[in-house]
Amino acid sequence: MSKLGDLGARLHRGEVGYDFIGNRKIWYGLSILITITAIVALAVRGLNMGIEFQGGAVFTTPKSEVSVSQAQEYAEEASGHDAIVQQLGNGSLRIQVGGLDTAQSDKVRTELAKDLNVAEDKIAAELVGPSWGEQIATKAWTGLGIFMILVVIYLAIAFEWRMAIAALIALIHDLTITVGIYSLVGFEVTVGTVIGLLTILGYSLYDTVVVFDSLKEQTKDITKQTRFTYSELANRSINGTLVRSINTTVVALLPVAGLLFIGGGVLGAGMLNDISLSLFVGLAAGAYSSIFIATPLVADLKEREPAIRALKKRIMAKRAGAAAKGESYDGSADENEIAVVGPRASRHGRSSEHRG
Fold this sequence. Notes:
Layout: H1 3-13, H2 24-44, E1 48-49, H3 51-54, E2 56-61, H4 68-79, E3 83-87, E4 93-98, H5 102-116, E5 124-128, H6 130-158, H7 161-185, E6 188-189, H8 191-218, H9 230-240, H10 242-264, H11 270-302, H12 306-324, H13 333-355
Parallel strand pairs: 1-6
Antiparallel strand pairs: 2-4, 2-5, 3-4
Helix pairs in contact: 1-9, 2-7, 4-5, 6-7, 6-8, 7-8, 7-11, 8-9, 8-11, 9-11, 10-11
Main location: membrane
Region (Disordered): 322-356
Subunit structure: Forms a complex with SecD. Part of the essential Sec protein translocation apparatus which comprises SecA, SecYEG and auxiliary proteins SecDF. Other proteins may also be involved.
């Protein structure tokens, strides 16, 4: 068995583990700090909305010897607006200029043909109206709202409402961080970004549901034992699924990283770059939140229940009593007492019968 596989087996059996729940205040603080940074960035810098949302023109030129920076300078001089230039994989250029109408677009196209020394009819021009972007944004918000409602209903039925609330908070956390990174680094928000953001919703919940399923199984009839508190079982659930979560996240991130760094960075694949960036950030944030946010939140909410709180008090009292006697209490004494006392009684009965 590989070292990682052996570690996974030991984590699953509870032989080793990290106290994720016990250190939850650290993770909460870190997440709050990141979320506040993202919100401040959105408030101060805003988002660099793509041409699909603000309107303008997109020009695609044939292969040219002109550099990206030079082409950007030509486009800004011809239009009087900021321009975004990308070099595509075949050596052609994609030039975006916002705030242009049809007449202005034709003028810029003519000027670009002269500056780039190419035939004007070889430059493809596409005019985009801002109303189209507004429709896309409206539909995206509608889809997001419907998805959130369905997720809460499903998780409340499949698990319980506390898990549904925790998963919803983790999901909002992931989206906020992803959008905040776009704002901080100034990446352009395009239709591809919206598609990527909607796609990560399911991925963000995947690891969370895996941990919740393990937790649901381990906490079945929890009040009938005095060995583990709810938080301890939640911690065992995280550790038990930790290697699986890491494996699935890495496997999912590798092809996305290929799209982002090779497809986007090397080949200049425009929309693929936008989609892969939001996927990459969202997948990483989703893996983090399932371990450090969602499950600790469930433990906090559950331990507010009277029965779970009373169980914790009983366990703590028994551990304190055992410690006072210089003994260690692992909770198995109550179970072993029945198993041990029974045979002793039987042996005593046989001994008495023999004496008789």
